[in-house]
């Protein structure tokens, strides 16, 4: 399978090269960053009350005065699905004064 030559495409190609089966649903984690804890918690509450079926973790970032909202979504990790979900999280994060900081997957050993 080939992917577009952009950041998402390169990550998916690396995952494929590492032997990850991209034809099966995976837990994909999308990261949002906020300067205010109240904004981070507001996004988390919105996501949890939505129909996104996401699990959410709010925690302080390693950078001082920054809050992380990590949203895990079980999904088929196709390029189109990743781009669409990342755009959705970008819009939501912007609505709550934050921004999307990428995505990743954790592989079980």
* Major sheet description: 4 strands, antiparallel
Reported by name, the CATH topology is: Alpha-Beta Plaits
CATH architecture: 2-Layer Sandwich
Number of helices: 3
E-strand count: 4
| CATH class placement | Alpha Beta
Strand arrangement in the largest pleated sheet: 2-3-1-4
Model description:
It comes from Thalassotalea psychrophila. 38% of the residues lie in helices and 30% in strands. It is of the alpha+beta class and 109 residues long. The chain has one domain: Alpha-Beta Plaits (2-Layer Sandwich), CATH 3.30.70.970. β2 and β3 form a beta hairpin.
Task: Give a concise summary.
Residues 5-105 form the Regulator of ribonuclease activity B domain. By secondary structure, the chain is an alpha+beta fold. It has helices at 7-17, 37-49, 79-95, and strands at residues 26-34, 54-60, 67-75, 98-105.
Give keywords:
single chain, about 110 residues, alpha+beta, Alpha-Beta Plaits, four-stranded antiparallel sheet, about 30% strand, elongated
Task: Record the SSE blueprint.
Blueprint: H1 7-17, E1 26-34, H2 37-49, E2 54-60, E3 67-75, H3 79-95, E4 98-105
Antiparallel strand pairs: 1-3, 1-4, 2-3
């Amino acid at each position: 399978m080939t992917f577009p030559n952009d950041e998402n495409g390169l990550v998916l190609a690396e995952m494929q090269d590492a032997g990850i089966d991209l034809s099966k649903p995976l837990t994909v984690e999308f990261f949002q960053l906020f300067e205010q804890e109240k904004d981070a918690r507001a996004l988390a509450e919105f996501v949890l009350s939505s129909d996104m079926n996401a699990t959410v973790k709010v925690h302080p970032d390693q950078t001082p005065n920054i809050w992380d909202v990590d949203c895990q979504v079980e999904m088929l990790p196709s390029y189109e699905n990743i781009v669409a979900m990342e755009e959705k999280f970008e819009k939501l994060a912007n609505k709550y004064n934050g921004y999307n900081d990428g995505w990743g997957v954790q592989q079980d050993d």
